[in-house]
Amino acid sequence: MKLALLFYLGDEMYTVSCDKIKEIVPMMQLSTVQQGPEYFAGFFNYRGEIVPVIDLCCLIRGESCRMRLSTRIILVNYTAGSGENYTLGLIAERITETIRKSGFRDSPVRLEEAPFLGEMMMEGRKMIRHIYLDLLPDCITFLPHGQKT
Fold first, then answer.
1. Are 100 and 127 in contact (CB under 8 A)?
2. Which helix (H) or strand (E) holds 114?
3. How many structural domains is the chain composed of?
4. What dihedral angle (degrees, nearest 10) is formed by the CA atoms of 85, 89, 94, 95?
5. Which domain holds residue 13?
6. Backbone phi and psi for residue 130, each to the nearest 5 degrees, phi listed first
7. Which candidate among 56, 97, 100, 145 keeps its CA 20 to 30 Å from the CA of 128?
8. Cβ contacts of residue 101 below 8 Å, gap of 6+?
9. 111 band by pLDDT with thresholds 50, 70 and 90
10. Residue 116: which of 66, 78, 64, 72 has the closest Cα?
11. CATH number where 19 lies
């Protein structure tokens, strides 16, 4: 496996590949939109670019990320269907390290609503699940890449 960022959503461990990560920034005040889905945390200005931010804990677990000192926004690059490049912010908890792990195996369950939830592995008594960043924007319909035709 390539280098991956390890983080938590609640008490569960997840990884994302580092090759799409632009930067990890501290939590900050976000401009919110009341009509958006619950997992849409809002926008912020990143060096002149307006960045939408998704609360991964809310998207995957149905509850907001806990605000801790180690809760951060992971900035990732993605390309829209038009070929235009965008930045997406992902809120996650306890972002503390990068890892190289092998032994991930396909999940025995595929969720049509969450195809971005990928391979799994056991780490002692805990399970680690990989999130495919390339598939995530397709599941978020308000993003340019995720708009269904």
1. no
2. none
3. 1
4. 20
5. 4-146
6. -95, 140
7. 145
8. 1, 4, 15, 121, 123, 128
9. low
10. 78
11. 2.40.50.180
